[in-house]
Fold:
Amino acid sequence: MKILIVGAVAGGASAAARARRLDEYAEIILFERGEAPSFANCGLPYYVGGVIAERDKLLVAPKQRLVERYNLDVRTRTEVVRIDRTRKLVVARDLSTGTEYEESYDNLILSPGASPLRPPIPGADLASAYTIRDLSDADRLHQAVGGARTAVIIGAGFIGLEMAENLVHRGITTTVVEMADQILPPWDPEMVTPVADHLRDRGVRLQLSDAAKAIEATDAGLRVELNSGGTLDTDFVVMSVGVRPENQLAVDAGLEVGTRGGIRVNASMQTNDPDIYAVGDVVEVTHFVDGSPIQIPLGGPANRQGRIAADHIFGRDSKYRGTQGTAIVGVLDMTVAMTGLSEKALMAANLSFEKIYIHPAHHAGYYPGAEQLTLKLLFAPDTGRILGAEIVGGAGVDKRIDVLAIAIQAGMTVYDLEEAELAYAPQYGSAKDPINMAGFVAAGVLRDDQPVTHVAQLTSDGADAEPYVLDVRTAGEFEAGHIEGATNIPLESLRARLDEVPRDRPIVAYCKVGQRGYSATRILAQHGFAVRNLSGGYTTYLADASHEQQSVEA
Amino acid sequence: MKILIVGAVAGGASAAARARRLDEYAEIILFERGEAPSFANCGLPYYVGGVIAERDKLLVAPKQRLVERYNLDVRTRTEVVRIDRTRKLVVARDLSTGTEYEESYDNLILSPGASPLRPPIPGADLASAYTIRDLSDADRLHQAVGGARTAVIIGAGFIGLEMAENLVHRGITTTVVEMADQILPPWDPEMVTPVADHLRDRGVRLQLSDAAKAIEATDAGLRVELNSGGTLDTDFVVMSVGVRPENQLAVDAGLEVGTRGGIRVNASMQTNDPDIYAVGDVVEVTHFVDGSPIQIPLGGPANRQGRIAADHIFGRDSKYRGTQGTAIVGVLDMTVAMTGLSEKALMAANLSFEKIYIHPAHHAGYYPGAEQLTLKLLFAPDTGRILGAEIVGGAGVDKRIDVLAIAIQAGMTVYDLEEAELAYAPQYGSAKDPINMAGFVAAGVLRDDQPVTHVAQLTSDGADAEPYVLDVRTAGEFEAGHIEGATNIPLESLRARLDEVPRDRPIVAYCKVGQRGYSATRILAQHGFAVRNLSGGYTTYLADASHEQQSVEA
Structure:
């Protein structure tokens, strides 16, 4: 058995190690265009930022280890330039010498990854306009950062924000330009508004709903011209506007690719040529939740796909279950995470859903250090099946997204979350954990115990009459800020003041986060009022409203 | 509808709030023997330790809020002394005045909790021998701690160790006496050995396999006489040897209780009298994993049971699914957590199981601050269903135990853990998260890719011949300490030195944590050797071996 693997990071390296474990006698050759196999690509921004101080740390599985432990033939600085499917061989080029040679295979695994897009604008190829993908990119950026005072990042996705965090660490004045009217475009906008505010608080300038139309060299560095008309002078530019699957080799060989360029594979990671597998960022996967074809570049799935391809080569019935889009990003002490489908993805797919927001503390409020998090849960209106979740906050966000990721994998419902038995001691969680709370609130919606409404529906609640907006917080909270037109009746006096609430209009009750609003909703509903609770309360309202202002920032 | 609730903490308070939300018009009376309803009982040790500085923080839902928000009739300092099931009424005693009166019910919910056991030894009732259950206990201990220099804690369970942590915070020299030969008796011994070592490192003296046989007052404080013959002079004693369900009221009323005294209830939390419910630490529950009757005092389940009882009273088909024993305890910057059944519980229940140990970092090793954790996974040999897990370490332990708790709730298998898509960025996790790793290793055992063995089997591996113990770490690691009788062949040179390995004996391979041992196992198995990997490697070996020494400590 002779296996060739193209690309020795994540999926490729995993496939190689697994193949060797399954067959001590197979010939396994790993081609890597770069200088090192199996480097920590997710660590590159932190190396640039100096958080990871030693470059060697990025070499997760050095070449020598792959050779000695796994008996692999690792050929770095070697690019596979062509596949000959008929003769079952590839043409490889030694990048040091330019020499090309053929290498035959029984099975071929493609793991070339995805390459950063460069915006199609003048100057995108200037020396100080960087993308970041591999170690040499990181080296160049690491050097550029030394001595620089200003930077412009184009694109406010994961990599853009991770770079922003790291440049802030290095004391560099940073502007992030983003074409969308929000940061982190895969997330729903109201969830990331607090993150944008936090970035601004930490000195990052956000230029949303704007784009670079040209980059030019100046005496002092670079000047970025914006669509909005302004210009930004900067020492260097980082372009992080997304990635494109490196499919050329596959396309040239006649392998099928999807509409967004990802190589099409079956559940065993086979391409339309059964002797050729593809894994990692280069493939189109099936979304676990709705079964749609999608491309999501993620390290975990890449590793598992590599393993599955190797399994299948050795006759095992190992199957990839799809990608559910679990992702997390740290942004200057905040954490932003999601799993499953976002609201915008559900809307785009025309799937019906319900949603709720909660803002619980990450552990018992009576124990010092509790941090508030915001959790948005999306679920099926009929079955209660969990469709997606987004969580933003500080400590404890990563825990809850992983719990929900597993719940989605298991096909669990919001009713299951009500019953989840999670670990509780006051420094870790709550007797009613945020996961339970999300279940209670969502199940309350489905059982009609707690009809909810949302900020967007506030002015037109599906009824003819404009809703009566009832603020059930304290007078002090009301005075400090409230929804325009709202009336304040604190929850504690609501029962005594029911006659002040109109019976001819729909009522929307709200409090700070939704809990008192829920109690008010229960009271009013049982007294015959048509009432809904504003999910997430004033906290979600503020996140949603401030979103409208983002695009007018200069 | 008139509902009486006995006990206003956790389950009782939850039942009351839920009942009010379901019925605005019900009469709901909450009897609480203590001075305050709904206090944070899990916070008491931290109040004693000064970590929770303000006593008011412990009042989670003050009486006034329960009255104003929930329109509850809260009667503190009032003890229910008798139930008359025929007349459907209780007799309540106002503890301030001694007055007794009757109160009728349509439904009665018992949530009296469990009371700390006092060891049946002379002096256990001395003034400076404390138990900790409610606010007044905490107040007394809080006062005792001021000015004290030494303390003896009897019982090394949760509460005992939380008290030890807090007394260390207060600078008090603390000795913990425990009858078992390990701390945290519900855990498997090899898992808590590192925790015991950590306690000793932090100055806590552990007196294992020993017990107090008497406490006597001295001029300076107290003297504890030990079974082992020694004595301990101390300023005060904390007794934390377990709890007993407060079942007297129920027993007197003829309600059924289990063999360990817990009130028997059905899935809707009804006792054998359908008008009387019981919730929280006083009830016997069904273990979620094996269906056995059990008593586990936990805050989360108590809260959910209260909710379920209220639901059922109002005609809802709400059912408790059983308790799976998810528990967590912080011990001076270490975290110890479990969910499902322990190995000793599986042994006691005579259930068949497999087990594995891993010692991964809690996030990517290349990102600074990675802390090693130890994870033990117990699973069914036939289906791979997850039966239980224990995790010990620092950061990230709480996350993984919650993920596994949900996985157990969902009935997931180790194969599901292989495919789990968890959130990965280097400061939060790994592309192959500890959860995935546990899945890989456990599934490898079931697929016979990686036969494992354990420390206890080292000297008698089921075979006639004594195993050849092969240390595949580096020469340097081997020299620094190894299993007695082991031979060192580093993994990297194993393929070249196969002829040194005997073919007539079973081989046990090991490394530091199990990964290189796995690779060695794969190599040797494919070359025809009968080989097993020592699960958890030398790290687990040390934890298991040092366990034997605990009991001889003076």
